[in-house]
Amino acid sequence: MKIIQMCRVEKLIMKYIFVIICAVVFHDDLGVNSQKFFPNLPVGDFRIEYKAFIRCQIKTNNDIRLNLYLSKKSANTTEIRGNVTIGKPIDDSWTANAIFAIKDSIGGWKDNAHIFKFEKACTTIKNFLGKEWKLALNSFGAENTNCPLLPGVYVGKGKYELTNFISNSNFPKIFFYGTYKVRFFLTDKNNIEHGCGSVVVEVKRPWETD
Ligand SMILES: *[C@@H]1O[C@H](CO)[C@@H](O)[C@H](O)[C@H]1NC(C)=O
Ligand SMILES: *[C@@H]1O[C@H](CO)[C@@H](O)[C@H](O)[C@H]1NC(C)=O
């Protein structure tokens, strides 16, 4: 019930996200299998612990490469470092996808816990990231922060911190607790995947420590 209320109170800009989360809840009401994904549906304020960035490569093309890794500077400060190669402009003909797998109680990954799809990738991600968009692009040496993202090799200067990512961006401020592996990739207008990576994060209660 709490979750359904959350759908109503959140800002419209989050509709992409909340369509998905609400759908999960409605499924639950209908008794459809969502028990598998969310044994207790614990949800609420959270903080995130960034655990790892996992690189991957798409078999059919190599035009967008995320050579990234995480560097932990202190208990609550994690930086993204590395570099990103963009071989063709990323404009609004692309779709960005993020597929969340959640770790279950015996340590396996259950796929498709949440699926976020952002049509008009460049503009939507830009709006979704809010202040983080410019911070991220500038710290990877991109001066142009308008859409489309231009081809180039962007090298991290070791200054991009994730500390305020959630508060600066339009990510939901309430979320389901758990350990997630989030696989993200772009799809072009022919639905072909380009550029991918995964991050492993723990979504914890604000007061929870390791
Ligand atoms: C890191 O955590 C400490 C202790 O919880 C807190 O005092 C500090 O403000 C945090 N730093 C940042 C950048 O959030
Ligand atoms: C990008 O990262 C890869 C992998 O770490 C590295 O081999 C390459 O030299 C980097 N390229 C630039 C331009 O920094």
From TrEMBL:
Domain of life according to the entry: Eukaryota
Gene3D superfamilies from the UniProt entry: Ganglioside GM2 activator
Residue spans crossing the bilayer: 12-30
Classification via InterPro entries: GM2-AP_sf (IPR036846)
Keywords, ordered alphabetically: Membrane, Signal, Transmembrane, Transmembrane helix
Name under which the protein is recorded: Uncharacterized protein LOC112690089 isoform X1
Organism: Sipha flava (yellow sugarcane aphid)
Classification lineage: Eukaryota, Metazoa, Ecdysozoa, Arthropoda, Hexapoda
